[in-house]
Design a protein that fits this description.
With 334 residues, the chain is an alpha+beta fold. It has 14 helices and 11 strands. A 6-stranded mixed β-sheet has the order 9-1-10-3-6-11. The protein has a 5-stranded mixed β-sheet with strand order 5-4-7-2-8. A hairpin with a 6-residue loop joins β4 and β5. α5 packs antiparallel against α6, α9 crosses α10 and α11 packs across α14. It is globular and about 65 Å long.
Length: 334
Amino acid sequence: MTDLLSDMLRSISLSGGIFLDARFTAPWCVMSKITAGECRPFLSNPVQIIGYHFVIEGSLIVSTDEGPPIEAHAGDVVLVPRNDAHTLASGTGIEPVSGAALIQPSPSGSLASIIHGGGGAGTHVVCGFLGSDDAYSPLLDTLPTVMTLNVERGTARDWIDASMRFAAAELLAGRLASSGLVARLSELLLAEAIRAYAGALPDAETGWLKGLRDPQVGRALALIHRDIGAPWTADGLAAAVAMSRSAFVERFSALVGRPPIRYLTALRLQTARRQLRSGGVSLGRLAPAVGYASEEAFSRAFKREFGVSPSHWREQAAVEWQAETADGSPRRLQ
């Protein structure tokens, strides 16, 4: 699963950065949601954002509108795969304040900071993100609202822990904010959390990650994501993973939740929708890139899936982008 998951993460074209050093003293509670503006020193137009908080010292409780609160302690990383709004706190029942309002830019242009709280027990957190300019991935959509990873127990614990602490020290000195080390570290944190989550899924669970764990279905998913424009067929994918067509389609459908060609079609059209959002590609070039022989065939499939033509979608996306740049908050267009 390790190589396949790495392939999937590379297909999302993620970039990473660390933007905030936060030091809290109990009691405290802050609302958190990474904005597009906080990512723009590293990404010009982040469509999907994955936030994370590395607890260096102390502990905290993270809460969202879904599920019970989750405790995190020193050595834990809290990941928010779809950048849902959440609160970080020293305990329960504390009135939250806006974390964004507490951020203090560095006079030297290095790492921004927060110093906040009531003077009690301390918690030190470094906050970062992974973002994508234009990619669609079912991987992110299958993950829970909040995930935690203890770097001291992970398979890459020594590298992650040493790198994160080194990065935190360098960032405070105004270095490394968007370096290759930080990007690789951010991606590795996500991969480790996904592996731990996938490994704990019940056997009866279905979904994309269950498919990725299966040797044949996982290989087919990797082939599809490496080249969504290729003329894949159920027969061709089955042959590539050394299965009969009927057995392959049955297993793929049972694990992933839809037949392979329906999955491929949805992936192509979602990818096209993200590309159209940027406005920098013509329909004539986009159609073959996502596996359609003609612009007309692509337009028909797009309208059948989303109810509007590609050109109309691009116009809507331009309006949304103007609104987004006005307030600095990313929107996930539907």
